[in-house]
Specification:
Helix content: 40-55%
Strand content: 15-25%
Radius of gyration: 30 Å
Low-confidence stretches: none
Strand order of the largest sheet: 1-4-5-2-3
Distance between the termini: 102 Å
Number of helices: 2
Structural class: alpha+beta
Number of strands: 5
Order of helices and strands: HEHEEEE
Mean pLDDT: 83
Largest sheet: 5 strands, mixed
Shape: rod-shaped
Length: 135
């Protein structure tokens, strides 16, 4: 009788252990789904925040002084600022603009008006600004 009692207690313990493991894996699966949803929301928020710093160049009219500021602030090897004046189109990949000669082909008149457009890559991240001078 003592052996049967031990076997029954072992089986009951085994059933409780399996139930505990099943319940725990259910919680784990739920938390994984929640984690994936949270990560997606976080990535979306990060993209919106990083893109918002270019908001003033999203389909607006800006001055030539703003165009020069965009070159100096944002242009680098991974972000291009393309400026199309009435004379020339220049693409800037360095945060440098030091043209002071009004007769230079890439001179940007600070009081000129430019229509601004943001450029995005396949992921939807902003990777450039295109500025076209209004006539």
């Amino acid at each position: 009788m003592g052996t049967i009692k031990k076997v029954i207690l072992f089986i009951i313990g085994l059933i409780f252990t399996m139930a505990f493991i099943a319940e725990g894996s259910g919680y784990f699966n739920k938390s994984m789904a929640l984690s994936k949803t949270t990560k997606g929301s976080y990535d979306s928020s990060v993209d919106r925040i990083s893109s918002s710093k270019y908001g003033e160049f999203d389909g607006t009219i800006v001055s030539g002084a703003d165009a020069i500021s965009a070159i100096r602030l944002y242009a680098d090897e991974n972000f291009t600022v393309s400026v199309q004046t009435n004379r020339n189109t220049t693409v800037y990949n360095k945060a440098q603009y030091s043209v002071s000669d009004i007769s230079a082909s890439n001179y940007i008149e600070p009081t000129a008006k430019f229509s601004a457009k943001l450029e995005t890559n396949d992921n939807g991240s902003v990777n450039g600004i295109t500025l076209t001078q209004k006539k």
